[in-house]
Specification:
Tetracycline Repressor, domain 2; about 240 residues
Length: about 240
């Protein structure tokens, strides 16, 4: 029912999370997950495309796009450049794949995780925040936004990711009982709040702030009171 905000349910963590500097790849990304599940992807000890993409995302989080260099990646993975050119025709080709992976793989995967199970619309939104925080997506999103200011490929994939997230949020608010236009407005506000403070994603104060904003948006907007008609002056 619209206007009723239930107390937060305890949401189980998706997986333990390590700081970006301590992990070779973002934890449990969709690409890494598929790579681990596919024996032929690493046949004969050869690195798969997923290894290169995940390593690039990790460097992107740590050092920004200026730190993503072929020499850095080969040193990080402990291989020669021959493995790289087995999957990518050039470094520009690789950067395009790295950018596209953000929306095509990571964001879609996290939306699937957030939608799993029999959760209420409000809990699905909270689940998405939990998943994104645990998988390091807030860190990657911050790096992607900086990259997008200088590279149309990153800007394009960022807009695509935002479209996916907005659709997810809009649907959740619609299920809470809000009209289409109101649901979309709330989705945009909530996404903007996350983007503005994305650098403080792990702050307890910030988490409380996001929770309070979500609950405020989930409440029914009170109707403006009708002004009382003024009485005619006495003669």
């Amino acid at each position: 029912m619209r206007g009723v905000v239930r107390k937060d349910q305890s949401l189980q963590p998706v997986s333990p999370r390590k700081p970006a500097a301590q992990r070779a790849v973002p934890a449990k990304s969709a690409t890494a997950r598929r790579s681990a599940e596919s024996p032929e992807s690493n046949a004969g000890g050869r690195l798969s495309r997923a290894h290169w993409i995940d390593a690039g995302e990790a460097v992107l989080c740590e050092s920004g796009i200026t730190g993503v260099k072929l020499a850095t990646l080969t040193e990080r993975l402990g291989v020669s450049i021959g493995s790289f050119y087995h999957h990518f025709t050039s470094f520009e080709h690789y950067l395009g794949e790295l950018a596209d992976n953000y929306s095509v793989e990571r964001v879609r995967h996290e939306l699937e995780l957030a939608s799993a199970g029999d959760l209420s619309p409000l809990d699905r939104i909270q689940r998405l925040r939990t998943v994104s925080n645990q998988l390091g997506t807030f860190e990657l999103d911050r790096a992607m936004r900086v990259w997008a200011t200088i590279d149309p490929r990153a800007e394009k994939t960022l807009r695509k990711a935002e479209t996916l997230v907005l659709a997810f949020l809009r649907q959740a608010f619609c299920e809470m009982g809000f009209a289409e236009a109101d649901a979309l407005l709330r989705a945009r506000i909530l996404l903007s709040v996350n983007v503005v403070a994305v650098g403080k994603a792990e702050s307890k104060t910030h988490a409380t702030y996001l929770r309070d904003v979500l609950h405020l948006l989930a409440e029914e907007t009170p109707r403006p009171s009708t002004p009382k008609a003024s009485k005619p002056p006495r003669r």
